[in-house]
């Protein structure tokens, strides 16, 4: 089978990727809870280039090379272990792999996944729509529910509303009757409103901290998808309720990025640290969460904003576009022809 791979770390993934011919895992080698998936559509996330491009311990020791990137997928069950009863061969499923430190990702014609990393594709749901949920939708869901103070009737601020996580978070919050204020740049205002944002702050036209401070302590939760401005958490007591939670989503997987997170958690408020509860979303692939996402896709409460699609042969071009940081929603890769 064909699969995209990189064999080095610490360099531009666009240049490092090569299309290789690899063996397909034999059905007899599958463990009890494993499925062999013929990938039809996949989608890519920033973490899939940030980790291999990072230099140092994290990329060198936690990645087994050569490696195939890709976490999100929608495809057909091509084979399963004889004792796996959750799925049947020929069924369409979607989901996400559970770790970015993987050797065999979804940018391949076939991928082996654990059966708890996917759910059945609901009837009538487009394969591209499902393929592009995965990591971004799980991150949005787990940032909003159930560990934060974001409950029906509350008010959430989403810093960075036009990307994959942001557009999913807006829709999920509205599905639970939550008031949503988002930040974005001028060209993305209409997109954020279209997916349900109640209020949009154009950070290009104001000082964001001053704008939020003027509103007072009105937010129950803040989701920071951007990490900018740098002092957003430190100033959050000016616009986040005393009982509120600041949820950090954006983080660079390198030494400086991890050091920044450590400082945020460890710096006492008396020494200039934040004064509100801080959480950092470490996304997990939970089948129960995927089931909720599938229900929302099926009833129309959730839709994927697809920025662009690329053919399997053009995966490096897809990463090149993703790295520009200007995507509206998700980038989808067509790995195989849709049935």
Describe this structure in a few short sentences.
The chain has 339 residues and is α/β, with parallel strands linked by helices. The chain is built from eleven helices and 15 strands. α5 packs across α6.
Could you explain the architecture of this structure?
The chain has helices at residues 13-16, 47-53, 57-62, 127-131, 134-144, 164-175, 189-194, 208-215, 255-266, 287-299, 315-322; strands spanning 2-5, 18-21, 34-44, 72-80, 92-96, 110-114, 118-120, 155-159, 179-184, 199-202, 219-224, 240-248, 277-280, 306-311, 330-334. With 339 residues, the chain is α/β, with parallel strands linked by helices. The chain folds into 2 domains: 2-132 and 304-334, Quinone Oxidoreductase, Chain A, domain 1, CATH 3.90.180; 136-280, Rossmann fold (3-Layer(aba) Sandwich). It is globular and about 60 Å long. The two termini are 19 Å apart.
**Structural class label:** alpha/beta
From the alpha-carbon coordinates, what is the Rg to the nearest angstrom?
Answer: 20 Å
State the shape.
globular
List low-confidence stretches: none
Number of helices: 11
Average pLDDT rating = 91
**What fold name goes in the CATH topology slot of the largest domain?**
Quinone Oxidoreductase, Chain A, domain 1
Name the quaternary structure.
single chain
Largest sheet: 7 strands, mixed
Name the helix and strand elements from N-terminus to C-terminus, one letter apiece.
EHEEHHEEEEHHEHEHEHEEHEHEHE
Under the CATH scheme, which architecture of the largest domain would be assigned? Alpha-Beta Complex
CATH class of the largest domain: Alpha Beta
Q: Classify the helix fraction into a percent range.
A: 25-40%
Overall number of strands = 15
Q: What is the first-to-last residue Cα distance?
A: 19 Å
Number of domains: 2
Name the CATH superfamily classification of the largest domain. Answer: Medium-chain alcohol dehydrogenases, catalytic domain
**Beta-strand fraction estimate:** 25-35%
Organism: Aureobasidium pullulans (Black yeast)
Domain Enoyl reductase (ER): 12-333
GO molecular function, one term: oxidoreductase activity
Protein name: NAD(P)-binding protein
């Amino acid at each position: 089978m064909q699969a995209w791979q990189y064999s080095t770390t610490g360099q531009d993934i666009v240049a490092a990727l090569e299309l290789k011919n690899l063996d397909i895992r034999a059905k007899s080698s599958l463990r009890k809870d494993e499925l062999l998936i013929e990938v039809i559509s996949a989608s890519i996330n920033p973490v899939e280039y940030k980790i291999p491009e990072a230099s140092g311990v994290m990329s060198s020791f936690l990645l087994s090379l050569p490696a195939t990137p890709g976490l999100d997928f929608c495809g057909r069950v091509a084979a399963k272990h004889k004792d796996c009863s959750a799925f049947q061969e020929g069924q369409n499923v979607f989901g996400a792999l559970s770790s970015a430190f993987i050797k065999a990702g979804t940018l391949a014609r076939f991928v082996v996944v654990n059966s708890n990393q996917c759910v059945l594709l609901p009837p009538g749901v487009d394969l591209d729509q499902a393929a592009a949920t995965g990591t971004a939708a799980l991150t949005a869901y787990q940032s909003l529910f159930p560990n934060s103070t974001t409950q029906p009737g509350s008010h959430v601020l989403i810093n960075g509303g036009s990307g994959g996580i942001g557009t999913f978070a807006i829709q999920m919050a509205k599905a639970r009757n939550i008031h949503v204020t988002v930040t974005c740049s001028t060209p993305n205002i209409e997109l954020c409103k279209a997916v349900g944002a109640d209020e949009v702050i154009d950070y290009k036209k104001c000082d964001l901290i001053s704008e939020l401070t003027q509103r007072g302590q009105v937010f129950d939760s803040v989701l920071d998808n951007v990490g900018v401005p740098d002092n957003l958490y430190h100033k959050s007591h000016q616009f986040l309720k005393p009982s509120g939670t600041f949820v950090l989503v954006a983080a660079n997987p390198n030494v400086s990025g991890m050091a920044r997170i450590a400082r945020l958690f460890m710096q006492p408020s008396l020494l200039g640290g934040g004064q509100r509860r801080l959480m950092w979303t470490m996304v997990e692939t939970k089948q129960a969460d995927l089931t909720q996402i599938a229900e929302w896709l099926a009833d129309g409460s959730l839709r994927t904003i697809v920025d662009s699609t690329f053919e399997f042969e053009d995966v490096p071009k897809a990463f090149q576009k993703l790295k520009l940081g200007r995507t509206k929603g998700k980038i989808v890769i067509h790995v195989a022809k849709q049935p």
